[in-house]
Amino acid sequence: MKTLIVEDDFTSRLVLQEFLNPYGSSHIAVNGTEAVEAVRTALEAGEPYNLVCLDIMMPEMDGQTALKRIRDLEEARGILSTKGVKIMMTTALHDVKNIVGAFSGMCDAYLIKPIDRTKMLDEMRKLKLIE
Amino acid sequence: MNGVIGMTGLLLDTELNDKQRRYAETIRSSGESLLGLINDILDFSKMEAGKLEMETLDFDLRALLDDFAATVALHAHDKGLEFICAAAPDVPAYLRGDPGRLRQILTNLTGNAVKFTQVGEIAVRASLVLETDSEAIIRFSVRDTGIGIPAGKQELLFQKFTQADASTTRKYGGTGLGLAISKQLVEMMGGEVGFKSEEGHGSEFWFAVRLAKQSAQERTEMLLADIRGVHTLLVDDNATNREVLVAQLQSWGVRTEDAQDGFAALKALYLAKDTGDPFQIAILDMQMPGMDGVALGRAIKADETLRNTHLVLLSSLGQRGETRQMEEVGFSAYLTKPARQSELFDCLSAVLAGTASARQAQPIVTRHTIREMSRGARILLAEDNTTNQDVALGMLEKLGLRADAVANGTEAVHALETLPYDLVLMDVQMREMDGLEATQHIRDPQSMVRNHQVPIIAMTAHAMQGDREKCLKAGMNDYVSKPIAPQALADALEKWLPREASIKRTPRKAVSYVDEKVRKPKAVVFDKAGMMARLTDDEVLARKVIEGFLYDIPKQIGVLRTCLKAGDAARVERQAHTIKGASANVGGEAMGAVAFEIEKMAKAGDLEAGTARLPELGNQLARLRKAMNRSIKQNNAARRSET
């Protein structure tokens, strides 16, 4: 499994990396702009990510905007959201606006920080990323 | 017994100090145990004497299960247990047999399940074993997630006066008669009973009985067109509950999908919308971890593109009075758990019918509208025992209702000739003229009573099985047994009080979306347990995360200071948010709370206040570091002493 962790905070990144380590390699982006670039490069190389863990409140470009850009990139290539990369929001924000925004932007799961390993693995299982 | 239990109940609703409350609660629970014992012994002596006879009556199994569920659910929910009660869709509803005894067996098995279960769920299921043209064999099972029964004790179980735990310091009370009685009853019905259990993993008690089928055709078929094909989403965190409701809905031809939490629900809603087949109805469980039913409802109604989905809230019994809030959020209906099948059906039909008259404000559908709607109702209470009168009047008062009391049937008839009552609560056994005779007078078109159709609810002693039929035959509408359970009385009133008696409802308040305040205890410096749980107790990983945090976070505080100096509110907000998130990862609650304060101040544009809180952030980090070091030292010491 190939994962992109989009997270500006060191500790949160560390936690996610450690959770995901057993399942494959993970790349890091520290803001939305980097994330969109990473997804584009991977798509162009024909080696798309399986999972993106996406924080919302980040410098440069926030996670909600990045989510839309990523789905736009996929759509431009004829990839529908159900077939696209699984995007898991990993954020401390849990207000209605953000949650609804993320789902209407076609995220696949929404995890609230601090992230719980059991819950995260459950979500990954539900998304058929792991057994 | 009605006097003891009822008056204690009323006493408990008065202002009492802790000691008095404890005493009164003991009286009540002792009274209830005594009543149970009396009924058990009564049954048993009848059985021993060969005097116990089974009745053969037409009954509706689904209605029986629904009624039964409503009473048991209260106890289960009191203990925080999920309670599920349902018949499989293929189980025939219209049967002949002894419904009172059937209910007694179910009550006994379920009562045990509630008693021996501290966490989890209790599921009562009825399934069809075999069906012929005239008969059906139906298996009832009561499954719990309780303490289970040790293998060595299992054969004792159905003997009278024995319990699995016979020590004098038994944790759980009981006479040891219940199961023995149930077994006898099942055998009298020509059935068998059994169980399987594993200590620590719960038990499943089951019995199968043969019941005759009524020849009448089931009526529901023709009504189904209403809801067939409707696209419905069911959201509940409890898997058994989902399974039961989905099966029920699908048996009606409702196209049902389910989701186990708010997030999955939103995902399903957006997907359905995108594929051009949006959900028409979403049924949301109230009590879900994370995003609860109300929060999810708000989220759905807040989005233009989802707003047309009708919302139905499922909530546990005993959580009422929030109707207006539900309405404000945008729920069309409100059902209490466990939802009765007939209610669920009516509710969905009503909700869909609401679509037709779009603009008309539909009143929210609820089973608990007494308090809100029927305060103006005029009720007549006929009861000759003054203690019982006080009990009933007290309960009615608690429901926000008032009643006039009379002491016998003659007075009741006279009262009904002079005043237009909305409902009569009628004791069955009274001097001069009893309840049955009074009812016949009232129903007689020749009598002077003003309203011959006034709803009459009988009140009679529990031990009198078969009384219910007598009452209904006499023309009464319903029946509550003594000692009167407040919930049973409330349910009966709800069912029979005419809606015209309702007072004008207060106008709606302005919609407010203020988030409910989460009452949190004071934040702890280092919530190690919480962090360990999130990291699945992985000590090595925890160490790594703590070290990473302590290495990085001073830098982040430095960045925050720079942003504050530069007067960049947006960056301050984001940076404080980052620090909050980092602290949350390591269970640094107190530190996270300070960071959150600064985040909010920055959002409000008050950087001065934010700067003033900065030193506190440093202090909290120092305290957190100390607590972490202490815990790591303790761990090392513990490990050394182990080896």
**How many domains in all of chain A?**
1
CATH superfamily of the largest domain in chain B: Histidine kinase-like ATPase, C-terminal domain
Inertia-based shape of chain A: globular
Number of separate helices of chain A = 5
- Biggest sheet layout of chain A: 5 strands, parallel
* Main beta sheet strand tally, sense and closure of chain B: 7 strands, mixed
Structural class of chain B: alpha/beta
Helix content of chain B: 40-55%
Q: Please identify the top-level CATH class of the largest domain in chain B.
A: Alpha Beta
What is the H/E order of chain A?
EHEHEHEHEH
Structural class of chain A: alpha/beta
- Largest interface, counted by CB within 8 Å of the partner chain's CB: A-B, 36 and 45 residues
CATH class of chain A: Alpha Beta
Assess the beta-strand content of chain B as a share of residues.
Answer: 15-25%
The CATH architecture of chain A is 3-Layer(aba) Sandwich
Mean pLDDT of chain A: 92
State mean pLDDT of chain B (0 to 100 scale). Answer: 79
From the alpha carbons, calculate the radius of gyration of chain B and give it in angstroms: 30 Å
> What's the name of the CATH homologous superfamily of chain A?
Response regulator
Oligomer: heterodimer
Instruction: Report the principal-axis shape of chain B.
Output: globular
